[in-house]
C-alpha cells in the first residue's frame, strides 16, 4: 500500500500540483506564526514548547485518523495515505520558477533569469552573473527535491507513515520559519527547531546523497562529498550539494569566487574560512547544468521508487 500511495500521489501532483499559496500551507503558516507569538519570550525552552505544540497539533490527529481508517477499511487508509503524501510532497511546487529560469537563460535573457531567481529565494540577485544564476537554481532545486520529496519518502516508510511525513515537513518548515527571517536569526527561540530538524534529516540527507551518486557520476560524487561537504556551514546541505554537484560534474557553492551563493531560504551561506581551499572539480554552472540537475533528480526518484517496489514485493512474499 505504501508504494501505491506514493505512486498515486505523484501522479496526482503531476496533473494538479499544489500552489505555493494553497489554503493548507497558508493556514499552517498562520498557525506557526500564532504559536510563535504566543510562546516566544526570548528563551530556547519557549521554542521547544512551541515546536511540540505545532508539530503535535498536526501529527497526532494525522496518526489518529490513519489508525481509525485502518480499523474501518483498508481502502480508507489508502485514500488517507495518498492525501497526506500529496499534501507533504512538493515535487512540482516550485518547478515553474526553475523552468522560467532555464528558459530565460537559454534565451540569453539574464535579467529575467535574475528576477525569477530573486522571486524564488526572496533575495536580491541583481548583481549575479548568468553562471551564478544557473548555480543558484541548481543548488535550490537539489535542496528542494530532497526536502520536498526524498525526505518525505524516507519518513513515510516509517511506522504510522502519514504522521511521520507530516512531522518531517513541519520540522523542516519550522526550522526555516523560526530561524531564517532576519528578525529571528539572533533569537534563541528557533534554535530547538533547527537542532531537532538536523537529527530528523540526518539519515534522509545521506540517503539522498547516495542516490545522487548512484544515478550520477559515482566517483566524483563520493569524492566531492568526502572532500568538499565541510565547506558549507550547514553540514546536511553540504552533503547534498557536494554529492549532487559531483554527480553532474558542476561546481556548486563556489567559495573561491565569493559569489553570492543564494541556495534558498533553507540554506546557509558558504563558510568564508574555506576560501583558500582547492577548487571543487567540475565545470562552471551554465544553462545546460539545469537540465542535468533535472535528469539527476528524476533518476534518483526512479531509483527510490524501484527500491520501494522491491521492498513492497518482499513484504508481500
TrEMBL record:
One of its GO terms (cellular component) is plasma membrane. GO terms for molecular function: ABC-type vitamin B12 transporter activity; threonine-phosphate decarboxylase activity. InterPro entries: Cobalamin_biosynth_CobD/CbiB. It is found in: Cell membrane. It is a multi-pass membrane protein. Its main location: membrane. Converts cobyric acid to cobinamide by the addition of aminopropanol on the F carboxylic group. This is Cobalamin biosynthesis protein CobD. The gene is cobD.
Amino acid at each position: 500500500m505504501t508504494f501505491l500511495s506514493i505512486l498515486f500521489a505523484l501522479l496526482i501532483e503531476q496533473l494538479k500540483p499544489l500552489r505555493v499559496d494553497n489554503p493548507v500551507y497558508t493556514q499552517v503558516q498562520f498557525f506557526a506564526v500564532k504559536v510563535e507569538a504566543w510562546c516566544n519570550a526570548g528563551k530556547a525552552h519557549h521554542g521547544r514548547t512551541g515546536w511540540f505544540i505545532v508539530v503535535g497539533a498536526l501529527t497526532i490527529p494525522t496518526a489518529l485518523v490513519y489508525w481509525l481508517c485502518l480499523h474501518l477499511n483498508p481502502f480508507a487508509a489508502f485514500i488517507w495515505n495518498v492525501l497526506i503524501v500529496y499534501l507533504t510532497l512538493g515535487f512540482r511546487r516550485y518547478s515553474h520558477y526553475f523552468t522560467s529560469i532555464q528558459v530565460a537563460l537559454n534565451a540569453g535573457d539574464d535579467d529575467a533569469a535574475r528576477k525569477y531567481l530573486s522571486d524564488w529565494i526572496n533575495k536580491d540577485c541583481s548583481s549575479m552573473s548568468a553562471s551564478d544564476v544557473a548555480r543558484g537554481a541548481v543548488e535550490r532545486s537539489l535542496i528542494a527535491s530532497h526536502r520536498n520529496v526524498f525526505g518525505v519518502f524516507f519518513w513515510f516508510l516509517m511506522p504510522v507513515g502519514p504522521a511521520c511525513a507530516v512531522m518531517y515537513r513541519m520540522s523542516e518548515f519550522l526550522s526555516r520559519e523560526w530561524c531564517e527571517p532576519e528578525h529571528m536569526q539572533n533569537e534563541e527561540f528557533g534554535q530547538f527547531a533547527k537542532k531537532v530538524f538536523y537529527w530528523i534529516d540526518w539519515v534522509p540527507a545521506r540517503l539522498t546523497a547516495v542516490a545522487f551518486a548512484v544515478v550520477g557520476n559515482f566517483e566524483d560524487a563520493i569524492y566531492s562529498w568526502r572532500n568538499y561537504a565541510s565547506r558549507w556551514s550547514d553540514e546536511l546541505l553540504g552533503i547534498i550539494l557536494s554529492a549532487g554537484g559531483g554527480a553532474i560534474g558542476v561546481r556548486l557553492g563556489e567559495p573561491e569566487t565569493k559569489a553570492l551563493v543564494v541556495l534558498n531560504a533553507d540554506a546557509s551561506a558558504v563558510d568564508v574560512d574555506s576560501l583558500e581551499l582547492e577548487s571543487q572539480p567540475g565545470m562552471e554552472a551554465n544553462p545546460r547544468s539545469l537540465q542535468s540537475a533535472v535528469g539527476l533528480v528524476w533518476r534518483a526518484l526512479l531509483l527510490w521508487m524501484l527500491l520501494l517496489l522491491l521492498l513492497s514485493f518482499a513484504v508481500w512474499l
